Amino acid sequence: MMEDIIGRYMRLDLDGVAHRIYVEEAGQGIPLLCLHTAGSDTRQWRGLLNDPAVTRHFRCIAFDLPWHGKSSPPEGWWKDEYKLTTADYAGAVMGVSRALGLEKPIVMGCSIGGRIVLELAAAYGAELGGVIGLQSSSHVVPYYDVSWTHRADVHGSEACAGVVSGLMAPQSPEGERWETLWHYMQGGPGVFRGDLHFYKEEGDLRGRLARIDTRQCPVWLLTGEYDYSCTPEATMEVAAAVPGAKARIMEKLGHFPMSEHYAQFAAALGPVLEEVRGRQ
Amino acid sequence: MTPLDLPAVVNADPVLRRWGRNLSAEVLLEVGPQSWLLSIVKGAVEARPGPFLMPRWDVALRIDPDAWADYLRPEPPPGRHDLFALIRFGKLKLEGNLHPFMSHILWFKGALATLRGAAA
C-alpha cells in the first residue's frame, strides 16, 4: 500500500546561503505548514499527513529544517558548530513558505516549533492565517546539562533518545513512542544540542508576546500534560500573555503529541481545525 | 517490588541486557532513609540492601520517597513518571560520576521502571 505523502527536495537560499530542503506534503485545501521538534524531522507528522479527515480540507506540508532529516546542512558545515537562532528559524520557515507560494498558511509547530510560531505570529502575523503551538512556551528553565548529548565518549543518538523518552505519556502506544525515539537516534551529531541553543538560551520570547495580535493572526495552543520540558503551566503563561489565544491541556499526551499517539492528539486537534475552516 | 528484585528481573531481560552490555558501575540508590547498592557488571545487576557504613559508589541516585512512590504506580502521574521528570522537579538528585548514567539513560529508565506495578 502506497501512502499519499509525496516528498520532494527544494533548492533555496536562506540568509544568502544555498540550501537543499526536504519537503513532503499530502492533501488539498487550506495550507497547513508543520514544524518538527528539536533534533527530529518531518516523520513526526506521519499520522497527520495520513489522516484523511485532515487532508480532505488541508494541504499539509512538513519540511526538515536544515541539518535535520533529509535536509543537508549547508556547505562548510564541518567548520561550524550548529546553533539555531530565532532569526535562522523564522527565516527558514518563512523562506520555505514563500518559496512554496503559500497564501496565509496556518503554521503548526511542536516544542521548538511551538516556540517559533509565537515569533512568527509576532513578526509575520499579517502573512499568516494563524498559528497552532503544540507544547508551546516562551522560555524554559534548563534542567540538565545538554553537553551530554554531544561528546565523544557518549553515544549521542542513544543519549538524545534517553533524554527525551520520558517526555512522552506512559499511556502512549509503545510502537509510536519508540518510533519517535528512532527519529531522535538518527539526528546528526550536535544537532539536537544546537536546536536547544534556541529553545533554552537564545530564544527567550517573553518580550515578543505583546506584539502578537490574535485578531490578525489567531493563536491556538495545545499541550500534553506529561511534558516536563514545556509544562502545561508554561503554555498557560503564554496564553495569559497573549490576549485572544486559546489554550487546551491534552490528557494522556506528552511532548510529541502528533508522533507519540496520533489518535489521541487528533481528538484535540480536530476542533481547532474546524475553527480554522470556519474562519476561511 | 523493591530494588532487591532488580537482579532477578533485569538479568533475565534480554532487551535490558543488550542496552546495558557496556555498563559496569557501582550505583547507590537512596530513597529517603532506605538505600541499596547496585553492582552492575556488563549490564548484570547484584543488589545489596543498606544501611552502609562506608559505601563506595560511582554514581548516586537520591530520590524523594513520595515521588518514588508515585513513580512506581502502574500509571504514574505527570511529573513523577520518569527519572528525568524527577530530576526536572528536584525529586531526584544525581551525584558523583554521571558518565555511567548519562551514557546509559535508556537502561536506567528501563531497569528502574521494571519495579513498577507493586508500589506500597
Kindly describe this structure.
The complex is a heterodimer of chains A (280) and B (120). Chain A has 280 residues and is of the alpha/beta class. Chain A has one domain (6-279): Rossmann fold, CATH 3.40.50.1820. In chain A, 36% of the residues lie in helices and 19% in strands. Chain A is built from ten helices and eight strands. An eight-stranded mixed beta sheet of chain A has the order 1-2-4-3-5-6-7-8, with helices on both faces. In chain A, strand 1 and strand 2 (17-26) form a beta hairpin. In chain A, helix 3 packs across helix 4 and helix 5 (156-165) runs antiparallel to helix 6 (174-185). The two termini of chain A are 34 Å apart. The mean pLDDT of chain A is 98. Chain B has helices at 6-10, 14-19, 65-71, 83-88, 99-102, 105-113; strands spanning 25-31, 34-41, 44-49, 59-63, 92-96. In chain B, strand 2 (34-41) and strand 3 (44-49) form a beta hairpin. The mean pLDDT of chain B is 96. The relative contact order of chain B is 0.21. Chain B has one domain (3-113): Nonspecific Lipid-transfer Protein, Chain A (2-Layer Sandwich). A five-stranded mixed beta sheet of chain B has the order 3-2-1-4-5. Chain B is an alpha+beta fold. The N and C termini of chain B lie close together (9 Å). The A-B interface holds A 143-144, 148, 153-155, 158-159, 161-163, 165-167, 169-171, 225-229 and B 75-76, 78-79, 81-85, 87-89, 98-99, 102-106, 109.
